[in-house]
Structure formats: C-alpha cells, structure tokens
Amino acid sequence: MAGKGSLAKLDVGVLSAEQQEKLQQFKIKTRIDNENYLRSHPEVEVLIGDFLRDVLLKMPADICEFAADYFTNPNLHAVIGSKMEGNMK
C-alpha cells in the first residue's frame, strides 16, 4: 500500500484542463456519495467505533487476527444492534 508521500509525486499537470475538472467533480461526487451513505447507515460508525475501542483496550499483538476474529463473530450483528439501541435511548 502506498503512503501519502507517494500521492504528492502525482503529476496532475499531465491532465488536460477538462480532465482535471472531471477528476475534481468525480472527487466531490464521491465524497458526497460516501457521506450520504454513512449518514444513512449509522451502524457503520458504531461498528468501527466498537472495533477501535476493543483494539485500544486489548492492544492485540496480531491486529490482523484480532480483526478477523472481530468481524467474523457470529454475534456481531446482535452486539452492534444492541449498541445502536443503547445510543437511541
């Protein structure tokens, strides 16, 4: 996976003005679409927040194995659902 530093090396000057405008509009539309999706699915915030809380509390040595176990938990849907209900009270 490339780091942020590699993004700075992209030469957008090779794009025409029209291509740059299309790229900018694509980026804006993507951000708006992503925000709309996240607003219509508040369980995503609860799910990620719960996962990060568990990571920081347990500080697993093997984060990949921990994440695999977390996200394949057969009770995950019920756990997140109960936390969503708790947030609504």
Automatic annotation (TrEMBL):
UniProt xrefs under CDD domains: DD_RIIAD1
Full protein name: RIIa domain-containing protein
